[in-house]
From TrEMBL:
Keyword field contains Signal: no
Keywords: Coiled coil, Hydrolase
Record organism: Linnemannia gamsii
InterPro entries, A to Z: HAD-like_hydrolase_phosphatase, HAD-like_sf, HAD_hydro_PyrdxlP_Pase-like, HAD_sf
Residues in coiled coil: 155-183
Protein name as annotated: Uncharacterized protein
High-level lineage: Eukaryota, Fungi, Fungi incertae sedis, Mucoromycota, Mortierellomycotina
Presence of the UniProt keyword Hydrolase in the record: yes
SUPFAM superfamilies linked to this entry: HAD-like
Amino acid sequence: MPRIEVFSDFDGTISMADTGCILIDSGLGTENRKKMDAKILRHEMSFLEGMEVWWGSVNLTYEEGMDLLRDEELDPGFIHFYQYAKLQGIPFSIVSCGLDILIKDFMGWHLGKEEAEKLVILANHGEVVGRQWKVTYYDDSPHSHDKAVCIRESKAAFKKAVVEEQREREETEETAVQKQEEHVVVFCGDGISDLSAAREADVLFARKGRNLEKYCETHKIPFLGFDTFHEVTAVVQGLKEGTLTIDIVNERQRASFVA
């Protein structure tokens, strides 16, 4: 049975709309923001450079910002996925280049405040002073938050645990041959902030019709397209229960390339 860990982007992945873009578009305008998105995809500017302009354009109080997000929807399969992962003890983290304060309050609307407090949220820190939105970036990378790092750290921690278990067996002179546990990292995303993580995950879910899917097709990065988290749950459950193997999933990912 593999050890499965799931990491997911928030905006446009767990939430159906990009909550950050809604607030940014209120100041910068949709067309201007999209032009900057295109530059980032062409590697003409960094995501961090975009972030500086985007959040600097927002001129809202925090309450006004949250009011703009009140009617935005959660992925229809997310709550079922979250409950399954929790029941099965599958580690789950939200990994976002968005703002932690928005994510926590948005998830509180859908999961309840108490449950939202339990979420592992790895995101940029936001603070609103009057109408000025200040961002403390998660790291000093050009991404503002390099999502690939958490995946690499997860894989390194697993390898370290395997070595330590082997050492303990040797110290106790345990000679029984044990099958090495498989480690599978699942990442779900939709956009340009997910590009760094796309090459690190063992199983990559890219929301259909969004920038991450287009990027993976262009650069021949294996992925599974998805519409809702029900599809994520099905694959995770299959790997957990043994009805799917990572080899089968890899074949499906490779088959996702557009000819």
